[in-house]
Amino acid sequence: MPVETFRAVLLEQSAEGQVEASFRDLPVADLPEGEVLVQVAYSSLNYKDGLAITGKAPIARRYPMVAGIDLAGTVIESSVPEFRPGDRVIGTGNELGERHWGGYAGLARVRAGWLVPCPPEFTLQQAMGIGTAGFTAMQAVLALEAHEITPASGEIVVTGAGGGVGSLAVAILAQLGYTVAAVTGRPQLAERLRWLGAASILERAELAEPRRPLDKARWAGAVDSVGGGPLAAILSQTQPGGSVAACGLAASPELHTTVYPFILRGVNLLGIYSVILPPEERARIWGRLVTDLPLAKLETLMAVAPLSAIFDLAARIVAGQIAGRVVIDVSA
């Protein structure tokens, strides 16, 4: 018998503008348009997911919306030759969980251009251990490489190193031979960060705010996932010709700085936007994850939780209480 309904986390907006999240059994006929129907096996927990489910920020751009910005699963139906039933696929970004129903659901119908084949080196669970966080971390590292920041250039600082993007960035950079300074407000994570490859650990307070518009040059580059004061401090301490890849706002979306780092040291501020990318670029980034992210280190960062735990997990990640990566077992 064909399936008629599927379980999903649905976001709805009240007349007063409040966002409410709940589990719903939805008709398959309600799925949005798309060339590929995917049976979702796993999703992941990202800071953006936490904001969406708790209503702390207007992540969803329309309602009702199925939450979840990541998904990994198996193709059930396809109207395009690029994918066939049985193919393992990954979907991240492309406004899943924002404008198009996302991965916190048993089924997802999406456009073919939003999917990439899951590399054979990864299980679907590992793919979601990487998810948007690891994809963004790899994209940031590639941006540094494109601006000729090499292991010989000097020390790379990674903020938010206890989170998903930060911890995976530490592992990738260390694997590539960079000297990494990991910044965290959770000293209990120091041992883990050193195992991931961090050469030194900095307390978050050390980079809370810039001490002066142009400070002593220290960093050849950076992967910043927090924004705000820490990003301003890093810019003031970046070496001439250095590059800072910015990909988050956990500390603040505001940036109070001066033009001095840019016009007196030629510092590059690189914006990392992982939502809309062509399929070929997505495939290239996943290919680099295969070669540059040690699976043994990924496994130590991963915890698996059922979809039924998503409301508690969303509150915890927004409160800064989640370390590493949480894979959401949708099938459970």
Please give the structural blueprint:
Layout: E1 5-13, E2 19-27, E3 36-44, H1 47-54, E4 65-66, E5 70-78, E6 88-92, E7 107-110, E8 115-117, H2 124-146, E9 156-158, H3 164-175, E10 180-184, H4 190-196, E11 200-203, E12 219-224, H5 228-237, E13 238-246, H6 260-264, E14 268-271, H7 279-292, H8 295-301, E15 302-306, H9 310-318, E16 325-329
Helix pairs in contact: 1-9, 2-3, 2-7
Q: Please, could you describe this protein's structure?
A:
The chain is α/β, with parallel strands linked by helices and 332 residues long. The protein folds into two domains: 5-118 and 301-329, Medium-chain alcohol dehydrogenases, catalytic domain (Quinone Oxidoreductase, Chain A, domain 1), CATH 3.90.180; 132-271, NAD(P)-binding Rossmann-like Domain (Rossmann fold, 3-Layer(aba) Sandwich). Helices cover 29% and strands 27% of the residues. It is built from nine helices and 16 strands. It has helices at 47-54, 124-146, 164-175, 190-196, 228-237, 260-264, 279-292, 295-301, 310-318; strands spanning 5-13, 19-27, 36-44, 65-66, 70-78, 88-92, 107-110, 115-117, 156-158, 180-184, 200-203, 219-224, 238-246, 268-271, 302-306, 325-329. Strands 3, 5, 6, 7, 8, 15 and 16 form a seven-stranded mixed sheet that branches. A six-stranded parallel sheet has the order 11-10-9-12-13-14, with helices on both faces. A three-stranded antiparallel sheet has the order 2-1-4. Helix 2 crosses helix 3. The protein starts with a strand and ends with a strand. The mean pLDDT is 94.
